[in-house]
Design a protein that fits this description.
Order of helices and strands: HHHHHHHHHHHHHH
Shape: globular
Radius of gyration: 19 Å
Distance between the termini: 40 Å
Largest sheet: none
Structural class: mainly alpha
């Protein structure tokens, strides 16, 4: 192994460990709404194994929460999937902004980076870099690895725990979806800069849900698309 390769591997490992370590406080927050999502998933008949596998393959808290909630509302599988995807359109903007980190890498590394990109590790990567510290691709992957492991374990534990409870609606635990979504929203709020796209999303979603003779899921989809599109145009560099 040449010195150049050794140095590359050494710096990649160091960056990965830094991302894994720095994300820890945020990972603990993810665990809280992961448990809440597990309760929600169990209320819809999903086992701990299926819930954990869903988290590993999809790894999109907001999309999973909305999709399961839409299934609970009998909106249908297609609408549930589309609503979840629409809500996570912001991830497209985030991964597009990471083209410098992804450029020139093997296809498996590109897929891995895109899959592990979330609000928390993407923001942390940029915040760390702004402080003058090394934070690139492997920092992003390190943070994402911590988050996805915590998400899988916490959602599976939540689903397993729910099996030992009586009916959630009778025990007062049916607030799980609301609690999980409130926690999710607080983690996504980035200050007043978030207000304009959030407002656009809320107005469009509410307007469609109240004025159109369609399932409310379509209002959610329209609001998510409008908010993501507005953010993309307003903050495009």
């Amino acid at each position: 192994m040449s010195d150049h390769v050794r140095n590359t591997v050494f710096h990649a490992r160091k960056e990965f460990r830094s991302g894994l370590r720095d994300i820890t406080p945020l990972s603990l927050g993810v665990a809280v709404y992961g448990l809440a999502f597990g309760l929600l998933a169990a209320s819809q008949g999903l086992s701990a194994l299926v819930t954990g596998l869903m988290g590993a393959l999809i790894f999109a808290g907001s999309a999973q929460i909305v999709a399961v909630e839409r299934l609970a509302a009998d909106a249908g599988a297609i609408l549930a999937v589309v609503a979840g995807l629409a809500l996570n359109l912001r991830i497209l903007l985030m991964t597009a902004s990471s083209r410098t980190e992804l450029s020139g890498r093997p296809l498996w590394q590109v897929f891995l980076g895109v899959h592990l990109t979330s609000d928390e590790n993407w923001v942390l990567m940029h915040a760390t870099r702004n402080k003058g510290k090394a934070a690139g691709y492997w920092y992003l992957v390190g943070g994402g690895t911590s988050l996805i492991m915590v998400w899988i374990v916490s959602t599976a534990l939540g689903a397993a725990f729910a099996r030992s409870l009586p009916d959630l609606s009778e025990s007062g635990m049916d607030f799980a979806f609301t609690a999980a979504f409130i926690l999710l929203l607080t983690s996504l709020w980035k200050g007043l800069r978030s207000l304009p796209p959030w407002t656009v999303s809320a107005v469009i979603a509410a307007g469609c849900a109240w004025s159109l003779p369609l399932d409310p899921s379509w209002g959610l989809i329209a609001g998510a698309v409008a908010g993501a599109g507005f953010a993309g145009m307003k903050y495009h560099e």
